[in-house]
């Protein structure tokens, strides 16, 4: 039999099998739903944070899901209460924020994005699922898909940065990693794509703040990763705290029904964020909790996280005819379907000895280390200061050199600092280390110990200063108006520079900080978004040249917080900066009103950011040459064949993230000056040249246009292939 026929039969069989499985689940859902009382249906819609304390409510069928318990003994105990002591024995959904690892902590998500390595990120999510499900957690509130363009916002730490395309790649990778291929496998953990929608556009970068996002901006920037993850089979979605143009997402039926269900065909389950239903009262969008509950359920929210509104008010709302039984039944169907899909009815319990067996498995730690290596970004390397010579004497100082708790970063509840390998612990494997403790935490303002460190530096060949942010300075509700290094960290770097020794600065932080001034006071700078459990070994290997940096900036690095929001893929203004602007201290006295250049820039910081999106150096150098595309004119159905030669022109084997950018020169609405449309990691030996080929479908240039149609508009385009968003030479082409 021909291979093709065989493959077709296999494909049809598996599709048929999946369909049969779905029909089986649907049938089981209907059978169970038909036996349920209204109170039991409402109980399934209620999610509470805790375990033992809700045992009696669980037995009474008043709880459908719990979060924030991770002890397998407690999880089994309350699961037995649900399965063996409630009337219908419906198992609980046990959930947790497993955001970048469970016990083995990986780099924070913005660090995962910096790897530009979806396959590695998927592997990390799989490790997280194996460790978390071993404790009994079968649902995580991850990935966070919020595009963010303001580093003052503390939650940039949890997302994939400013670019919708990178957001898609990272979100889909995590969904696949968490859920695996078989949802009923005990290691499958339901993903939860969040926060739908627009949370990262909080005004002023102030968490929870209002957003004003047009439908076109939603569709072109904030929706793509959610849609891609729905298509990739994400099993759940979480609504966001914020309002979009005056309507809180938790009460927005255009979002939750018209877009999510009707247009995208999402068949998973929708949960609120923590009390985001009740918070519509504070928003001034609901009179009271009963009103908020009515709004949420009618908007399409299936499960209520911790407002207690559903369990308290739904019965009365149904009896008053303000919520229909159909609406209740559809919400409960989504919840029961998830429980059947995860196999919870067949396997509700967990082996209580498993969790400790799988935690920190060598292969988990190895994956975390590799991810931390690939997430580190080399921002500066004057005179090839890095890598330092193995066996040389280095002075190590700074508040992040030996910070096992803070190195794990935000949203790392179940990471255990005693397993963290810090840089100070790891550097001894490669160097003779002089440890000179100075600042003891990132906000420390005491400079008293600087002189001793300067004295100690006399014996060292080089100095490595570890600065950055304690974990608490990013994450939820941790926005900053000043994103310079806090405390006396900049002074520490300057004091080390004053010794005249080569100074390497390693920043370990939760966001892109404004570190331009600090870069002027050091020879080399390595940037590591809280790298997790194995961050120390990863950084030590990079500093010693055992590994070579390949990370790229997933967000633009600003010169000053006052430039926020700033992102590479911005629309062009009618008066773009043209480099002729007069800066603050060059302005003559009594300057005339229009004498400084009437274009878009800041008098003090000029126009551009400190470092562009997609930027990152290596210990080697990469040259792009012979970049070409196969045609000058393409049709809407064509494929653009991009070819280029990439040469590793330095002396280290290394990996480059080659990026493909496109610009639509004229649209029915103003268009971004550049958009990432593809990237690939290419590993080359020193001196090696590789002929590379990348195919980009013209259909991938589509966007939501003036008439709110998703189309590729004919016209002139430009394309770049480069190592960051600010480099490369434009190639012109046309779509007809
Ligand atoms: C938090 C966060 C959300 C998280 C949830 C449960 O407030 O906004 O991301 O998943 O509550 O912890």
Q: What report would you give on this structure?
A:
The protein is α/β, with parallel strands linked by helices and 736 residues long. 30% of the residues lie in helices and 18% in strands. Strands 11-16-15-14-12-13 form a six-stranded mixed β-sheet, with helices on both faces. Strand 23 and strand 24 (710-711) form a beta hairpin. The two termini are 44 Å apart.
Concise overview:
The protein is an alpha/beta fold and 736 residues long. It has 21 helices and 26 strands.
Give the secondary structure arrangement, pairings included.
Elements: H1 3-33, H2 38-44, E1 46-49, H3 55-59, E2 65-67, H4 72-85, E3 93-96, H5 109-114, H6 118-133, E4 139-140, H7 164-179, E5 192-196, H8 215-222, H9 224-231, E6 236-239, E7 243-244, E8 247-248, H10 253-263, E9 269-271, H11 279-282, H12 289-299, E10 304-305, H13 309-319, H14 325-341, H15 354-358, H16 362-375, E11 377-381, E12 393-397, H17 423-427, E13 432-435, H18 450-456, E14 462-468, H19 489-497, E15 503-509, H20 516-519, E16 524-529, H21 535-544, E17 622-629, E18 633-634, E19 639-648, E20 654-664, E21 675-684, E22 689-697, E23 703-704, E24 710-711, E25 715-722, E26 731-735
Parallel strand pairs: 1-2, 1-10, 2-3, 3-4, 5-6, 6-9, 12-13, 12-14, 14-15, 15-16, 18-26
Antiparallel strand pairs: 7-8, 11-16, 17-19, 19-22, 20-21, 20-25, 23-24, 25-26
Helix pairs in contact: 1-14, 2-13, 6-7, 6-16, 7-9, 12-13, 16-21
The structure holds alpha-D-glucopyranose.
């Amino acid at each position: 039999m021909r291979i093709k026929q065989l493959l077709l039969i296999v494909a049809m069989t598996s599709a048929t099998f999946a369909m049969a499985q779905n029909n089986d689940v649907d049938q089981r859902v209907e059978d169970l739903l038909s036996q349920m009382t209204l109170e039991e249906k409402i109980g399934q819609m209620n999610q509470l944070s805790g375990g033992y304390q809700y045992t009696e409510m669980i037995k009474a069928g008043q709880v459908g899901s719990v979060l924030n318990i991770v002890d397998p003994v407690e999880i089994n105990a309350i699961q037995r209460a649900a399965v063996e002591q409630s009337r219908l024995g419906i198992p609980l959904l046990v959930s947790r924020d497993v955001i970048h690892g469970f016990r083995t902590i990986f780099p924070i998500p913005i660090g995962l994005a910096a790897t530009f390595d979806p396959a590695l990120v998927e592997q990390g999510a799989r490790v997280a699922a194996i460790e978390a499900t071993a404790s009994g957690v079968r649902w995580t509130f991850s990935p966070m898909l919020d595009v963010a363009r303001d580093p003052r916002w503390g939650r940039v730490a949890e997302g994939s940065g400013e670019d919708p395309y990178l957001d898609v790649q990272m979100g889909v990778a995590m969904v696949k990693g968490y859920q695996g291929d078989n949802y009923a496998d005990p290691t499958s953990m339901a993903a939860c794509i969040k926060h739908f929608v627009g949370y990262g556009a909080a005004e002023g970068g102030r968490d929870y703040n209002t957003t004003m996002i047009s439908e076109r901006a939603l569709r072109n920037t904030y929706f793509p990763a959610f849609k891609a993850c729905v298509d990739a089979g994400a099993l759940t979605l979480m609504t966001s705290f914020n309002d979009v143009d005056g309507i809180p997402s938790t009460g927005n039926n255009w979002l939750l029904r018209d877009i999510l269900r009707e247009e995208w065909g999402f068949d998973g389950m929708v949960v609120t964020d923590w009390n985001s239903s009740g918070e519509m009262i504070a928003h001034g969008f609901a009179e009271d909790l009963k009103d908020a509950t009515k709004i949420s359920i009618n908007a399409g929210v299936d499960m209520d996280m911790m407002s207690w509104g559903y369990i308290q008010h739904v019965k009365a709302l149904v009896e008053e005819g303000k919520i229909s039984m159909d609406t209740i039944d559809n919400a409960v169907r989504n919840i029961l379907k998830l429980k059947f899909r995860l196999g919870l009815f067949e396997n509700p319990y967990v082996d209580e000895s498993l969790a400790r067996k799988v935690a920190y498995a060598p292969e988990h730690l190895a994956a975390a280390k590799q991810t931390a290596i690939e997430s580190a970004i080399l921002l500066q390397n004057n005179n090839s200061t890095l890598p330092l010579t193995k066996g040389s004497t280095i002075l190590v100082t700074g508040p992040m050199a030996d910070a096992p708790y803070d190195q794990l970063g935000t949203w790392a509840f179940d990471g255990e600092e005693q397993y963290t390998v810090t840089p100070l612990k790891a550097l001894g494997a490669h160097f003779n280390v002089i440890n000179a403790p100075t600042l003891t935490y990132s906000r420390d303002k005491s400079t008293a110990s600087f002189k001793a460190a300067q004295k100690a530096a006399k014996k060292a060949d080089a100095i490595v200063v570890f600065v950055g942010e304690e974990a608490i300075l990013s994450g939820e509700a941790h926005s900053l108006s000043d994103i310079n290094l806090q405390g006396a960290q900049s002074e520490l770097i300057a004091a080390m520079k004053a010794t005249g020794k080569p100074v390497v600065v390693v920043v370990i932080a939760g966001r892109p900080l404004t570190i331009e001034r600090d870069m002027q006071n050091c020879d080399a700078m390595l940037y590591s978004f809280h790298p997790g459990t194995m961050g120390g070994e990863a950084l030590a290997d990079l500093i010693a040249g055992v590994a070579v940096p390949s990370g790229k900036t997933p967000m633009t690095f600003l010169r000053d917080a006052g430039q926020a929001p700033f992102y590479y893929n911005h629309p062009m203004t009618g008066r773009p900066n043209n480099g002729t602007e007069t800066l603050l201290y060059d302005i003559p006295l009594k300057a005339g009103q229009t004498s400084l250049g009437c274009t878009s820039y800041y008098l003090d910081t000029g126009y551009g950011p400190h470092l562009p999106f997609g930027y990152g150096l290596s210990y080697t150098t990469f040259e792009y040459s012979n970049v070409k595309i196969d045609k000058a004119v393409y049709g809407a159905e064509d494929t653009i064949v991009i070819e280029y030669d990439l040469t590793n022109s330095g002396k280290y084997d290394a990996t480059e993230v080659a990026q493909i950018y496109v610009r639509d020169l004229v649209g029915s609405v103003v268009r971004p000056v550049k958009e990432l449309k593809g990237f690939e990691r290419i590993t080359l030996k020193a001196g090696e040249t590789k002929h590379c080929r990348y195919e980009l479908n013209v259909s991938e240039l589509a966007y939501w246009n003036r008439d709110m149609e998703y189309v590729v508009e004919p016209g002139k385009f430009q394309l770049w292939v480069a190592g960051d968003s600010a480099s490369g030479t434009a190639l012109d082409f046309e779509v007809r």
